Amino acid sequence: MHSHAIESFKEKIKLSTRQREIIIGKILGDGCLVSQSQKRTYRLQIEHSLKQKKYVIWLYQELKTLIRTPPKMKRQYVRGKVYYKYWFNTLSIEELQFYGQQFYPNGKKVVPKSICHWLTPLALAIWYMDDGSIKSRYHRARIINTQAFCKSDQERLINALKKNFRLNCKLRKQKEGYQIMILAESANQFARIIKPYILPSMSYKIEGLG
Fold first, then answer.
1. Which among 195, 171, 194 is positioned nearest to 181, based on CA atoms?
2. How far apart are CA 33 and CA 42, in angstroms?
3. What is the DSSP code string of 53-119?
4. Structural domain boundaries, residue 209
5. Tens digits of residue pLDDT in 128-183
């Protein structure tokens, strides 16, 4: 497709409500918005380990109207070890500008003050599939790894979880920062909220709950 045709195609892209919810979840999780046009347009970068290939393919199918190139595999060398990743990028489009402005006002990812308005069950499920884990096999509590955010941003997320879903949560201090812990008494309720959206390949993250 020639550049003029691509630009014409990009101008016609409109995000569906479902796509917006998925994008919110991805940005809270492992997704990254990047702009190379003075913040006029943004593209969403998605990358996961090869173990999560099915998840990446599902994301690609959901966001396909924003993408020209299907997912690819790449190798990364870290400290002498080889890691395989599965990834894709969306097109750089104006439809993502709002999210770029909200989540990257100064270039670094933050949690917007209005996050409670956007954190839906689907967005929460995507966020958890990205960054969620079990505390241990002996505990019902669930962890969301939010160490990349500052403490005030994490407190904002906890407030959204409490307000939107009535989940009891707290911050759990780690060497590299804080995690959000969804307490055992809210674990079943949490699982019921996100279970309709959890992929079979990710169901181990809510195993034993519901």
1. 171
2. 6
3. HHHHHHHHHHTGGG-SS--EEEEEEETTEEEEEEEEE---BGGGHHHHHHH-TTSS----TTHHHH-
4. 111-210
5. 999 998 877 778 899 999 999 999 999 999 999 999 999 999 999 988 889 999 99
Instruction: Pull the structure tokens for residue 134.
Output: 């079990």
Looking at the fold, whether 145 and 135 belong to one and the same domain comes out as yes
At residue 191, the pLDDT reads 96
Which CATH number do you get for residue 35? 3.10.28.10
Q: Could you give the angle at the alpha carbon of 193 between the alpha carbons of 189 and 196, nearest 5°?
A: 135
pLDDT per 10-residue tile (average), the chain, 210 residues: 60 88 98 88 96 97 94 91 94 95 95 97 98 83 95 97 98 92 96 97 89
- 72 near 46, Cβ under 8 Å? no
Q: What is the C-alpha end-to-end distance of the chain, expressed in Å? A: 47
* In a shared domain, residues 22 and 100: yes
Predicted local distance difference test score (pLDDT) of residue 55:
98
Do 194 and 142 have their domain in common?
Answer: yes
Query: Positive or negative CA dihedral for 165, 112, 108, 99?
Result: positive
This prediction's pTM: 0.92
Report the run of H or E that residue 15 belongs to, with start and end: none
Which residues are CB-contacts of 7 (< 8 A; sequence separation ≥ 6)?
A: none
